[in-house]
Amino acid sequence: MTRIYANNVPERAQQGADGQYVIIEVKAEVDLNAQPQMPTEADKEKKQERDRMQGGPGLRAGWSTGGNDKYPGNAVVTQTADIKTSAGKTYKANTLPIESTSEKCLVADDFRQEEFISPYTGQVLPYNIYLPEDYNPAEQYPLVLFIHDAGVASGDVTHTLYQGNGATSWAEPEAQARHKCIVVAPEYPVITVDDNWNYSHHLDATIALLKELQTKYSIDPKRIYTTGQSMGCMSSIVLMLKEPDLFAGALLVAGKWNPSLMGPLDKQNIWIISCEGDTSSNSLQGQAVELWRSQGSKVTEATWDMTLPKEQLSEDANKMRAEGNHLLFTHLTGGNHRATWFVAYGIEGVQDWLFEQHK
Hints:
Order of helices and strands: EEHEEEEEEEHEHEHEEHEHEHH
Distance between the termini: 44 Å
CATH class of the largest domain: Alpha Beta
């Protein structure tokens, strides 16, 4: 528990108030080496059927993983000591547990769910969009595109908001106070890219979506950014290769692409973050970096301990920014593939760098 206070509404607040609600704030600890939830028998059968239909095990572009079910938000509170009110009344300790009956997902609930019809296939691309709280059409805002990993490719549009913090980190109140921006997070029903360097038509639909959004909202065309984790990182690379003039910068987390195809990206503003426990991403992205260097580009490179406090990681990020290069590569130690995005998206210095980039 980090804070306990009274309030007159069931909401988190900087300053509490007299009221009928008791707000208990807790900090969730992230296990940097945690693995996905154990598959159920239904999950195993679904995977076997998918492997049979596609001719072998593995993930293929255009196929669905079915996504992961979101864990239910559930909390149990027990009063272990007497509580005395300001009026002198005492509530005796009670071992009877009190269980939560509903949940509210802070920040994620601030996203609106929309649908886009692909001009190429006529299929629906669901997406989540966040607008700044005081959005003003007379102002221009940067846009951050976030693309999820393959684990949540499904029909539930909100899954991308819960698989890590890659979408919500940009919409956090603290982040918006530093950099107001529009956040767009599509939910792909299928895998968009695979390890054989294939990609689906959904990425063309994504480009079309971004162009339509520029006609609906006040978006700064010189400050459109892309980021993604794992499959989302790979998808972002494909988008930059297909549309080299669209993005002002990219944050590429825990992903990879064929290094021999990434030469043209050496003129882009890119920050790559991989975990040394993620051999595939770290190795292939390292090969891309060496290719860029062979083409004459300078790349700032560093290794960070991902278990350090985020304030220290932000300082480390600022040291890399200070070198002034437009290509950066960070190796994280202390975790695995999935741990990368839980850490990368919480580093203020990395976010600050992205918003500094302009076309």
